[in-house]
Design a protein that fits this description.
heterodimer, A: mainly beta, 11 strands
Amino acid sequence: AQSVTQLGSHVSVSEGALVLLRCNYSSSVPPYLFWYVQYPNQGLQLLLKYTSAATLVKGINGFEAEFKKSETSFHLTKPSAHMSDAAEYFCAVSGRLTGGGNKLTFGTGTQLKVEL
Amino acid sequence: DAGVIQSPRHEVTEMGQEVTLRCKPISGHDYLFWYRQTMMRGLELLIYFNNNVPIDDSGMPEDRFSAKMPNASFSTLKIQPSEPRDSAVYFCASSAPQGSSYEQYFGPGTRLTVT
């Protein structure tokens, strides 16, 4: 079974400041991990994914995340926030199951607010 | 590719009416997922299909909800009869065959309002 915990349902940063959104996972099998972003009135869009290659994963819009097995974490970062980054962010985990399908378990989401 | 297509984008209906939501997955994807998103419950997986066959419908809230996938390019989620508590945004997502990258691609959603 897999689960994801996102710490902080709301995060507020100033424009130009570091963005750090936290995600911890639990998985009984080696995980695949994902970050999705949802802008208002839109569907979820994939930001980046970890699939057992490099532990530091780079995604779109300048975001990156680091897989840390010892900490069971997959935190999302961006060096400098932009107003356009304001959105809701979801962390998700999938187990590498054989015959189990591509089912994802999502976290509860973190709303990112960017202030001038 | 056009991505996952959902229709309608908005649906307003009265309690007791039948509602049908439609989804066209990305061509070549053999997994299809239906989710519901509300402020109170967040993003919930309702049901998913593999090669048009329902695999897990444990998230379907009750018998009023049903989903079908008659072919690889079309799926429906039906609510009959609808109730105000069904008001939510319903998303469809698809993903490529198992053993590939596992990520799901989401449609724009259908915003359902039941009055």
